[in-house]
Amino acid sequence: MRVYAVVAAGGFRRYATYRIATAAGVFTNTVFGFILAYTYVALWDERPRLGGYDMPQALTYVWLGQALLMTCAMMGGGFEDELIERIRTGDIAVDLYRPVDLQLWWLAGDLGRAAFHLLGRGIVPMVLGALAFDLALPTSAGVWLAFLFSVALGVLVSFAIRYLVALSAFWLLDGAGAAQIAFLAGLFFSGLLLPLNLFPGLLGEVARALPWSALLQVPADVFLGKHTGWGLVQAYGFQAGWALVLLLAGRLVQSVATRRVVVQGG
């Protein structure tokens, strides 16, 4: 396991190297946060309990979305582009010769990336949002810990989705199309634009049942105290269940793809 810890630390250092890009990302997240926040203010002025949230909770949801946007890679932008390129060029054959598990290798690096983005791009927009608006911040340390655990599960689900997208390049040769579809799905079904509780009827039920809701909607509701007691256990079970199913699916696809590489000779 030590090798994966080293890979995770390397992933953290890799993203920490790009300080200008990080500062630009913080600025972008903050600007979009203000745009969405004032949009939400207009909506909640008309419907004060829209989606079961009051105004401070709705505004908190906005800034949580900006804090977790890159942490949970809701719109992609993590390891998958590099992995797709390695599959396209055939360099993946070198990765398969390493005495490490391919899936765990990329997962470790992605965990390092997520940890950096949570600290480097998540905290500042949240603090600025709290200074500008009346946010519903938890006063209990237990809620903060429950939230961080939910975020960790969300990162696992995000990785599992993106890993499957990247592996599609074994058959598609160019995974850009699959990555774009995943980008749009993550943008819409994570709840980044609007909380999934606002989606009507069957659409809302389907959206909340899809794995992308584990990236933002579930952690945000944990943060806002919507899940407590047995409800919190169920929320964790939902996230962990999707993580397990998707990681196992990735393991299966990886196995099939590896045989395909062997058959094709690299």
Give the count of helical stretches: 12
Assembly form of the protein:
single chain
* Sheet with most strands: none
SSE class:
mainly alpha
Instruction: Tell me the span between the first and last alpha carbons.
Output: 28 Å
Radius of gyration: 19 Å
Which descriptor suits the 3D outline?
globular
Q: What is the H/E string? A: HHHHHHHHHHHH
Low-confidence stretches: 262-266
Secondary structure: number of strands = 0
Estimated share of beta-strand residues: under 5%
**Mean pLDDT score:** 91
Helix content: over 70%
List keywords for this structure.
266 residues, mainly alpha, single chain, globular, 12 helices
Write the layout of secondary structure elements.
Layout: H1 2-16, H2 19-46, H3 55-68, H4 80-89, H5 92-97, H6 102-132, H7 141-167, H8 169-172, H9 176-189, H10 201-209, H11 217-223, H12 230-264
Helix pairs in contact: 1-6, 2-3, 2-6, 3-6, 4-7, 6-7, 7-11, 7-12
